[in-house]
User: Fold these one by one.
Assistant:
Number 1:
Amino acid sequence: MGIAAEIADDWHAALAALAWEVEAGADETILDAPVNRYELAAEAPKPLSAKPVSPPVAADPVQADPAAAARSAAARAQTLDALRDAISGFDLCELKKGARNTVFADGNPKARVLILGEAPGAEEDREGRPFVGRAGQLLDRMLAAIGLSRTSPDSEAAFYITNVMPWRPPGNRDPDPAEIAMMMPFVERHIALVDPQVIVAVGNTSLFALTGSKGILRARGNWTLALGKPLLPMTHPAYLLRNPAAKREAWADLLSLQARLRG
Ligand code: URA
């Protein structure tokens, strides 16, 4: 086996030499001197499992459960300003990394009606305010038709508006269930601090966030309860822009909201 040892660092030459030896009749590989394998066993490298290992690093409980971190941050917020700061400082949701602004809320926090949308789009992300794009303008006109405005100082004539997600998802995709679950403690605290008389959920994401079920086209117009408040699910104004025929049902839903506020 001397030849192979001499040229061991040249893989191709070694292979060619081995082939030659096999051709010449070699049927086993041995070293130039005998080896006592019983002695070798005592010096053998320790198996991997015997290697000292560093103690396992305890998982960071905050990283392991972002919803728990959100829950404790939300619970500490005693005012809307504190809640806005808590959300802006929350770094565990990946969507924040791609957003320009944290979109918190708009409107009158004393309003009887809280509108819950889905997530900011491009214009909301740029401006840092919810529902300022085309869909938001339609929503403003719809609510104005029943006497509600986000700029009214009168709590009876005002609405307050926020979203399930304060950061724009890439490509305007829907927030996924894990992202929604992570941010729900903030949504719940937000609603508790505003303490509206009724909630209007526009679109599937907000319906899902508040009730755990989807199917806004079936649910719309049917009053239910969420977080201890009357909840009216409605189609999202972006859907109404794409499907103008559905405005008729949305109008019926607005009248139902108006009747509830009057009653
Ligand atoms: N759609 C939403 O659901 N929210 C916004 O803020 C804008 C568009």
Number 2:
Amino acid sequence: MHWTLRTATSEYVVGLFGETGSPQALALEYWGAAGGATGPWPKPAIRYSYETPADLAPLEYASNGTRHVHRSELLVEHDDGLSGAVWTYVSHEQSATELAVLFRDDTGRLELVQHVLVRPDSDVVERWVDVRNVSTDHEVRLGRVLSAAWSVHAPDGAVLHYPAGSWSHEFGPEAVPLRQGVLQIGSRYGVTGHLHAPAMTVTVPGRADAFGVQLAWSGSWTIAAEADPGGLLRVSAGIDDETTTVRLTPGRTFTTPRSWGVWSPDGEWGVARAWHRHQRLVNPRATDPYHRPIVYNSWFATRFDLRADHQLELARTAAELGVEAFVIDDGWFGTRSSDRSGLGDWTVRRDAFPDGLLPLATAVTELGMRFGLWVELEGVNLDSDLYRAHPDWVYRVGDRPLVTMRHQTVLNLGLTAVRSHLAGVLRRLLTELPITYLKWDLNRPITDPGPADSEWSVAHTEGYYGLLRLLRDEFPHVTVEACAGGGGRVDTAVAELADVVWTSDETGPRDRLVIQDGFLRAFGAHLMSGWVTDLPGSRFPEPVSDGFRLVTSMAGVLGFGADLGTWDAARRKAAADAVALYKELRPVLLTGDVHVHGSPRSGEYALEYVTPQRSVKLVWAASDADVIVTDREGITP
Ligand code: DGJ
């Protein structure tokens, strides 16, 4: 049995591995250009012993008990001590865009459904599984339950490209050759994280094409690439198995998040363009300019030193520049005059705004801009009314001392009481004030989950998604900027449920260019929020022109974060001109196909955004930058 799924330009072919009576599974047969040679999967480049047939096959999803030598995506342990699963094909359903294949295990207690989904206008293949306990009296423990494995034939090894960095240096492009062994990236602290985003691209020396893998998940996650000596490289992706154990009680089904895979004939940047297109497709708001306003955010200008009259002054200047949304960051609530107190108390800070926020919000609206606020809904200072009232709402391991960072801890979003409290906070804030922009931050990892709660990261992530969905359903006019201490919450699930992401706390332009270059390898420009500030870069502090800074922020969703009160008339005029130009070019910059020339550290670098009508080239050279617009002949832009 074979099943073929056609994407926009490629083909994904899977078949049934294993005869009746022996372990069965889905195996990849072909992944490449539509109409390409779909012969059998190449035999291992060398002969070797000990591996079983299932270990040598490009299995789409493997379990312990079926695969013995190499990694499996699913680890099964029954409550009577039996471990592993041996599957038999039961049935399948297929349409032009979807395949679902059902397997049953040899105990008759478990069912596995493998899903494959494609869309005619994208080259991305989405895959996930359901694991169902159909027994009435046995609990089954899943020590690992990943979403999918993606196979690539790489007889001489492959190069793995992935985002690697840290706070303020996110998305640094890393490239590591792998001939044999395992390379694993991930997060085990409940948030997507700064170290890596869940994305990996595979290139094979001597070949021009490339394969990409992503995971649409914002909690703890893992992506592991394993290369065997016979030339099979499998990249598996899913929820982190170190911090998550799923207990399948009788009747329960666990559905994994989706993993995205893509093949591109055009190498790493071809994969990137396919990701961008798919991210725009799965988010119905992705191409809506309303949800990508030019923001002024006052964080870098004022930090916690918030005063109503000063914010209004900044707002007036921002409006002169052509800014579309004025956003007050951290510090507007509770007793939050520093990061030591008030987090969790979402009422207006009276020493900063004695008359409340309504007069400022109204003035901002009258200036022709939208009004926005920052929140860190999951965060809570120990010195806050919320923590004093509900110390049992935060993560805590038994009675061990809490690990605090930035004087705060994290609310357990797995608790219904916490979710309804935060839903209430959102509903109140968004109805009391004319807020149309919300920046949702999280400034620390989750470190203290309860020991008995082995699904805390899943529950937390679902709680986060639930609140994002509430925003979308009940407040569709509110734009959401996702953030976790800069770019710590950037993944394709966030790309679907939020509008933009705060890319990094590093706004120094040379550093930023490097971060953005890495970001764009996995995520679209329509998500990449970037403010123009006056701050020097922490790694590459050499000065640059204002034009360099402006063009750097124009590469995605333009914004401003400088203390505009210190800008003279000439700087304001230059910024206003850049804003006007950006507004004209925005459709191309946010939806065009991105092509990259040079490297941001080589001295000459350009990003070219191409639509059928127009191409916009942003060029950086030495300490200056330029914008070159080319209209296609005969086509009116
Ligand atoms: C981290 C964010 O990345 C910043 O932009 C800012 O919102 C601070 N948190 C505020 O605490």
